[in-house]
Amino acid sequence: MATEATETTESTEPESKRFRRLRRFGRCSILLATVAFASDPVAIDWAMVAKIREEGLQRSRVADLESYMTDVLGARLTLSEDMKRAQAWAMAEMRRIGLVNVAAEPFMDFGAAWDNEYVSLHLLEPDYQPMVGYPIAHTPGTNGKVVADAVIVDLQTRQDLESWRGKLGGKAVLSTPPAAVDMAPLVNGTPRRTAEELAALERTVIVPARPEPPRRIANAEVITPLQRAAFFKSEGVAAVLESSSGWLGAVRGFSRPGSRDDRWSAAGDSAAPVMIAITPEHYNRMYRILKRDIPVKVELEVRNRIGPRAEQAVNLVGEIAGSDLRNEVVMIGAHFDTWHASPNASDNTSGVAVVLEAMRILKAVGAKPRRTIRVALWSGEEQGLWGSRAYVREHFGNPNDSMPTKKPAYDRLQAYFNQDYGPGAYRGIYLQGNEHARTLLGGWMEPFRDMGMTTVSNQSVGSTDHIAFDEAGLPGFQFLQDRVPGGGGHTNLDFFDSIPVEDLMKNAVIMASYAYHAAISDVRIPRKK
Ligand SMILES: [Zn+2]
Question: pTM of the full predicted structure?
């Protein structure tokens, strides 16, 4: 305790300077803690924390929210009719919670609505078996029930194209190599984060200089996925079948090739073949039979509803008004859109349930934040963070963009907190390389150590909506979460059953407390220098 003795006897120093020096040595004595409270930038409002914990852990509505969204609303592909129905529900829910300025903000022309209405898929020969598969988003349906011979087609080059020309009419094409089934989850399970793992995450990582991007080698012979799909369409195949995930029992299927470039347009949909993603086990079975030169016959039918015209996709927002600093904003959020093969209970219905519940808790306990707290439910995340990026550009500007902008609100954003790493409990927070935010973000986890919220990692993590803020130089953060067993994101197996509801309850409490403390703090969260 030598350091403590030395520091506390330096009474000739000005109060503020002495306090700063003390803080560097942590709160390791009662004296320190007492002195610290008066002007501590990370001062915890313990009375409010108690209310938030009580409301969020004893009167939680997060399970109900999660169940309603997954069981009743279901999948929410951006701009689908399913999504529009769900967004109407979410806006009503925000108003019911008591949020103000609830709004749907259009952010871009997102093409035509696409919804799968029906799919049926069967192996007929050499042995009957129903198969599990889902149409790829933004592909057309079949004209009723189709029976087709299956054929393996490995289409990589222009020569392949020529060799198959005229031979594929009416065929069901196995277009990908057999998927290697990953047995690890079955053998190992999905362990939660261990102490060693958390310690490793806490170790400071020096970000290496970015390597040169690999030189693109022009190879006129190689065809693109888009060219492959166009060829199958022009050849009149019955359907293109694929399986690429290798996850046990799981179908993973995304948008058809080219949809990003043609903005998911109805015209592009009609130019694509029928495409169906199938579980690796069912797909591989057909593949192995065909490799024995034994014919495979399948029966399939797909009905998709494709909207008649391009429409605007929308983000949803709602607020708890601030008081003396109401023009400054703390944002929390999660993407509301999903892929289409399941309700996506984890990715990212769980994040949406947590941020809505955090807002509900704050209203229920009568929190009076100084800064405005705004929740955002993004759309277009799965196709590439379209909703959050457009929002940042529109509201804050992006000085790092190719066309740099900076709006007045840019300097009035305190922080953005996101959840999108599944439904696992918060175990810490990623600083996103922002060392200046360590004191505040680390300090605010103090009341939640008993919940396992202990780790400040300086690592930068990606792939979700906080990146839209971070890349614009705004403080956007993602929590460090436990992994949990279950179906996982982007599959047909992501349902309520594998959601650890207690973890969501804890997350909502922590999210509410972070939003609240960011909203009452005397200081601003420092930005990256
Ligand atoms: Zn996600």
Answer: 0.87
